[in-house]
Amino acid sequence: MPKAQRDQYDYDLFVIGTGPGGEGAAMQVAKRGWRVGVAERYRLIGGGCTHWGTIPSKAFRYAITSTMRALSNPVMRELGVTISPTMEQLRRGTQAIVGRQVSMRRSFYDRNDVPIHRGQARFLDEHTVSIDNDKPVTAAHFVIATGSRPYRPANVDFTHPRIYDSDTILDMAEKPSSITVYGAGVIGTEYASMFRNLGIKINLVNTRSKLLEFLDDEITDALSYHLRDQGVIIRHNEAMDRIEGCDDGVVLHLKSGKVLKSDVFLWANGRQGNTDDFGLEHLPFEANRRGQIDVNEQFQTSLPHIYAVGDVIGIPSLASAAYTQGRAAGMHMLGHTSGNLRLNDIPAGIYTSPEISTVGSTERELTEQCVPYEVGQSQFRSLARAQITGDTVGMLKILFHRETKRVLGVHCFGANASEIIHIGQAIMNQPDQHNTVDYFIETTFNYPTMAEAYRVAALNGINRLF
Ligand SMILES: Cc1cc2nc3c(=O)[nH]c(=O)nc-3n(C[C@H](O)[C@H](O)[C@H](O)COP(=O)(O)OP(=O)(O)OC[C@H]3O[C@@H](n4cnc5c(N)ncnc54)[C@H](O)[C@@H]3O)c2cc1C
C-alpha cells in the first residue's frame, strides 16, 4: 500500500498480541520505518510463550534436571544429601527468568518506538480496532497474533483445586505424590517427563495408539521405552468418560472401564485459538471450531491487509515458528519476498527425558514416497563426550538418499538433542552437492563433542552403500 494511502490511518501496522508471532512482525516492520503499534491484554508483554508456555516450562524443567543431577552426583550421595526441592523453590528461578525476558522484550518495543496499547483488542471494521472498548485505533495493515490457550471441555471442572491445565499446573502449591496427565501430545509428554524426574508417580493417558505419532518410529519407540523405564505408566487408546474431583484426589473414569486415582489431574488434550470476543463478526472471515484462522502462504486472511500468524493459525504451534511467521508476514506487507525464511523447514524440539529433536522426513514418510534412502546411526553411549558427562542415553540418525547422498532427515534423542539437530539442519539447507552426508565424513569436528555423532552416523550409513 503506498505511503499516502497508509497515512490516512493511525498506524501503518497494528499487531494484536505480543508473543513471538506479534513481536516478529512488529520488529520486522518497525525497523523499516513504518509506524507500528501493538495491543496486549495481559498486564505484561511476551505472550503465552513467556508467561504460560515455553519459557516457564523450560525454566522449570531446567530447575528440576539441574537439581536432580546435582543430587545424583556421587560426592553428594557420599555426603548423604537427600533433599527434595519444593514447588516454591523450583518456581523461584522460573519467575526470575520470566522477569528477565519481559524486560528484555519490553526494551525491543521501546527502542523501536512501538507503543503498547493495554487491553483486549476487538475489530470494529476492516481497518479499526477498539482496545478495551476505548478510543478506536485505525491501521492500514493488521497482524493477528493472539495465540492459543488450553481447550477446556465443559465436563471438566477446572475450578477444582486438584484439576489443572498447562496454564495453571506450575502454580501448584505443593508437590503431589501422583499426577494423571490426560493427553500425550508434546505438552502432556513433557510435563509427564518433568514430574517423573521429581519422583512423582505418573499416569500418562494417551488418546492415540502411539506417543507423538509425527516423530520417526524409532524415536517414538525409544521415548516410550525410556518413559516406562523411568516408571511412567502409559495407557494408549483411552478416552475420558468423566472426571471426579474429590477432597483427597481426582478420579479419572475412562470409557474402557478403567478408573485411575491420583492426587492431581493435568488436562493436556488440545488447544483453542484466541479469537473469541475479538469482533470477528465485523470481518468477512470466521474462525474454525478450534478458534483458528485460515491463511494463505503469505499468512494473509481473506482480507489481504489482515495477516494472522502463530498459534492462532494452528500447527506447528511452536514459538520458533510463530516468530518466523511474524517476520514473514511483515516482509510480505513491506513488499519483500520471505522465500529466504525457509518456512517449511521447522525443526521440532521436545523437552522430554530423553530430549528429542527432529528435522526433515521420517523413515515412514520416505518409505511411503518410495524414496531410496539409507540410514546412518550413532549411539551416544559410544561417544567419548557422552561417556565423560554420563549422558549415554541417546541416538542420532541421519536419513540420506542412497544415490545423491543428500540428507533427507535427521532424528535425535538424548542430551541436548534440540541443539545438536541444527548441524544437520544447516547441511540439509545447503545447495545441491553441498547438502550430502559426505560433509560429516570430510569435516573435522572438535573432540570430544556430541557433534561427533554426525561423523559416526555418516560413516555407519555410508558403509551400508554398495
Ligand atoms: C507448556 C507449553 C510449553 C511449550 N514449549 C514450547 C517449546 O519448548 N518450544 C516452542 O517453540 N514452543 C513451545 N510452546 C508453544 C509456544 O509457547 C507457542 O507456540 C507460542 O507462544 C505461540 O506464539 P504466539 O505469538 O502465536 O502466541 P502467544 O505467545 O500465546 O501470545 C499471544 C498474545 O496475544 C495476547 N492476546 C490474545 N488475544 C488478544 C486480544 N484480543 N487483544 C490483545 N491481546 C491479545 C495474549 O494475551 C498473548 O500475550 C509451548 C507451549 C506450552 C503451552
Summarize the helices and strands and which ones pair or pack:
Elements: H1 3-6, E1 11-16, H2 20-30, E2 36-40, H3 47-51, H4 54-72, H5 74-78, H6 87-111, E3 116-118, E4 121-125, E5 128-131, E6 137-144, E7 148-150, E8 163-165, E9 178-182, H7 186-197, E10 201-205, H8 217-230, E11 233-235, E12 240-245, E13 250-254, E14 259-262, E15 264-267, E16 271-273, E17 306-308, H9 319-333, E18 348-350, E19 356-360, H10 363-368, E20 373-379, H11 384-389, E21 394-401, E22 407-414, H12 417-428, H13 438-442, H14 452-462
Parallel strand pairs: 1-2, 1-6, 2-3, 6-17, 8-15, 9-10, 9-15, 10-11
Antiparallel strand pairs: 4-5, 5-6, 7-16, 12-13, 13-14, 18-19, 19-22, 20-21, 21-22
Function: Conversion of NADPH, generated by peripheral catabolic pathways, to NADH, which can enter the respiratory chain for energy generation.
Binding site for NAD(+): 183-190, 270
GO molecular function: dihydrolipoyl dehydrogenase (NADH) activity; flavin adenine dinucleotide binding; NAD(P)+ transhydrogenase (Si-specific) activity
Concise structural overview:
The protein has 466 residues and is of the alpha/beta class.
How would you describe this structure to a colleague?
The protein is built from 14 helices and 22 strands. A hairpin with a 4-residue loop joins strand 13 and strand 14. 43% of the residues are buried. The model has no long low-confidence stretch (mean pLDDT 95). Strands 1, 2, 3, 4, 5, 6 and 17 form a seven-stranded mixed β-sheet that branches. It has a five-stranded parallel β-sheet with strand order 8-15-9-10-11. A five-stranded antiparallel β-sheet has the order 18-19-22-21-20, with helices on both faces. It is α/β, with parallel strands linked by helices. The longest helix is centred in the N-terminal third of the chain and has 25 residues. It folds into three domains: 171 residues, FAD/NAD(P)-binding domain (3-Layer(bba) Sandwich); 107 residues, FAD/NAD(P)-binding domain (3-Layer(bba) Sandwich); 109 residues, FAD/NAD-linked reductase, C-terminal dimerisation domain (Enolase-like, domain 1, 2-Layer Sandwich), CATH 3.30.390. Flavin-adenine dinucleotide (FAD) binds next to helix 2, strand 2, helix 3, helix 4 and helix 9. Flavin-adenine dinucleotide binds next to helix 2, strand 2, helix 3, helix 4 and helix 9.
